[in-house]
Input
Amino acid sequence: MSDQYLTVTALTKYIKRKLSGDPHLKTVWLRGEISNFKHHSRGHMYLSLKDEQARIQAVMFAGSNRSLKFVPENGMNVLVKGEINVYEPMGQYQLYIKEMQPDGIGALYFAFEQLKEKLEKEGLFDVERKKPLPTYPKHIGVITSPTGAAVRDILTTIKRRYPIVPVSILPVLVQGERAADSVAQAVRYANEHLDCDVLIVGRGGGSIEELWGFNEEQVAREIADSRIPVISAVGHETDTTIADFVADVRAATPTGAAELAVPSIVELRETVQGRQRRLNRSMIVKKDESLQRLQRIKKSYAFKYPEQLLRQKEQDLDRMLERLTRRLEQNRTQTLERWTSLTRRLRQQGPEMKIRDGSRALQRTEKQLNTRMNQIIKTKKDRFHNHIDKLTLLNPLEIMKRGYAIPFNDQGGVIKKTSEVKEGEAISLKVQDGRIDCHVTAVKEDEK
Output
């Protein structure tokens, strides 16, 4: 009878073989809403797909979800392709997803919006982090396809506008699965090995699929980390990529990027010529002013009568010497008088006088202090002997020497009245040289 019962494992394996052998469950296309989404640390994605009336457990392993261009989220409607099978440890059937894309919106567009929102939250689009372009670049790096129209437009524009600047072409793939990695490596190489002060990254126009290499996260982060200012020139004016948002400057076209990167040599020549004309005018004005000043100096008194001016200056010098001599003599006399006065004051208030006066004052103070101390000691002695005499009179031991005694009850209290003792009670008497224990035989109160 027991042979009729199956184990749970046997039943589960039987069901799994049934499902695995069903060709209709090998490839299943489903539309549903994601719930209970969990992205495991090993890369696997666990989720539920549901509609209004049912739900199914699903898993998408890391090998399959690595090519996703968006991140699944709870509440997202998706289209999935996969296989139905049984997960034996839990005994439940589930969907093993091979492909997934958003439902109702293009996967590339959805991935674009997701990455844009992510990088914007990280601050990679902030204006504060944008680096300014050099006014006169010394070396320009161009990262683009070496065979496209974009590179020809850029080189032609730079040669026409600013032919003195050297240009380095870093050839890359601009479309296809390897485009993002190729562009990111070129940006990194330019920062590590080239002395460029401007980078132009871009290509000509195309569809979103063709431009997708410039929407990849690795390209955006390499541009953001570039120490060299980057001009993004991807597609036409209406095309927008993630690289445009991250770059320091966005150009509408590759030709526009070249115009932003270099100044116009024609405009520079005009500027230099204008400044040269202003400098010539300034030099003419300066020369005229200097000539006028020279004429005024030639007509001055010093140039007309130099000998007479020299004699006048000699007389002024003699007067200055006389004044200086008188002033020196006055200063010497005043200094001598001041020195004499200070010497006299020093003798009157010198250290010897101070020491002698101080010694006398010290002797007087010592004498006064000794006299005062002797008076205080005598007063204290007299007061001490007076207190001793008073204490002697009040000392009960002195009274006991005259034959008196102090009675105490059995609690140690002093007996002051007859009412404080009773007949037969034990008392003690304190005399001069000891204590006498007694019993009261009678208590008599004196008549008043």
